[in-house]
Amino acid sequence: PAHAPRWQSECRARGPVCARTLCSALPSACTHLSHYPTDCCPHCESIGCEHRGEVYSLGHHFQPSECEQCTCDMDGIARCLVADCAPPPCVNPVYEKGKCCPECKDGPNCYSDSSQIQVIAGGTTVWIDKCTHCRCHDGQDVGYWEGNRVAKCVRMRNCTPSVGHRQSPH
């Protein structure tokens, strides 16, 4: 440890004399130590934070990635906030350079049914057969998109696809 006693020897006429030296504690935010052979104790050359191999000065704000905002606190610790991206309201989100969270370039959308082949725009209703229609959320439905990548489908009562009687959905 930096504050541990060290032995320092001096040569005198009657032989080496050892004296115990107590080194002072180094700052916790010390990022670069130097210890010269002529010195008994190490010295702190620079104070700051080290984060992933990079050194930042105290109080400095930095962004190591698109999703992180960090500050080098006065205690020498880098404190970072990581973005928490909401699930995008689409099945084909785009990640752009310099941005953390994905975006829906084509607006909200979903799959028309569980086959996950046809993508329909948000707020759109499509008939997948003569008796079943499906509506894609519009992206405004609070909490709806949490894992719902398929349109909500309603099958008409008393309908057979071959006859195709469309009645009001239940």
Automatic annotation (TrEMBL):
GO CC terms of this entry: AMPA glutamate receptor complex; extracellular space; synapse
Highest taxon, organism lineage: Eukaryota
InterPro entries xref list: VWC2/VWC2L, VWC2L_C, VWF_dom
Gene3D superfamilies: 6.20.200.20
SMART domains reported for this sequence: VWC (SM00214)
GO BP of this protein: negative regulation of BMP signaling pathway
Start and end residues of each VWFC domain: 47-105
PROSITE patterns the UniProt entry points to: VWFC_1, VWFC_2
Matches recorded under PANTHER family: BRORIN FAMILY MEMBER, VON WILLEBRAND FACTOR C DOMAIN-CONTAINING PROTEIN 2-LIKE
Protein name: von Willebrand factor C domain-containing protein 2-like protein
Native source organism of the sequence: Callorhinchus milii (Ghost shark)
